[in-house]
User: What shape does this take?
Amino acid sequence: NAGVTQTPKFQVLKTGQSMTLQCAQDMNHEYMSWYRQDPGMGLRLIHYSVGAGITDQGEVPNGYNVSRSTTEDFPLRLLSAAPSQTSVYFCASSPHQGITDTQYFGPGTRLTVL
Amino acid sequence: GNSVTQMEGPVTLSEEAFLTINCTYTATGYPSLFWYVQYPGEGLQLLLKATKADDKGSNKGFEATYRKETTSFHLEKGSVQVSDSAVYFCALSFLRNTGNQFYFGTGTSLTVIP
Assistant: This one.
């Protein structure tokens, strides 16, 4: 198993550009989520999904879109990048949506918006 | 609302010293509690968890006990090693009607010197 994979590892964007961060898992996990990690802020939940076709907002959803057309993939879209979106982004998955389930994290994408 | 507060870092210890990283939480209902560890350049990985009051989670010499009366989940290790140098995150998971959500603390950086 590759686990949770994220691409790209690094990305530089200009303000106003759009891009999609890719996330895939090969563990047949129901639950997937996106976080951003900022210094002094810990990890904050952006969006999550409890299964294909079902998504919901987390703490900081503004400026980001998601969709979940398959169990394996959960892309995060930035429609018009802003410098405030400079961050490290982590995708995570867990087997089910139970509160006792462990989350498995990808290696992260470091995004810089100029 | 739900939140996690953990001890500010950075923390620097000598090898074989005793480690405590404090974590307290605010939550409605009955969350599960987690400690995750992040090594440099990597994603987070589960260190230990506890899913109900008075449970003790343990792994690799680390321990934490879910204390409902003090809303705490402090991380301890009796004798740290250089390889324990990392950032440690306390987190809680609670159930919304659309699925569970995680809240993370801001992280505590630990450096262990030989």
User: Anything to note?
Assistant: The interface with chain A takes residues 4, 31-32, 34, 36, 41-46, 49, 51, 89, 91, 93-96, 98-107 of chain B (CB under 8 Å).
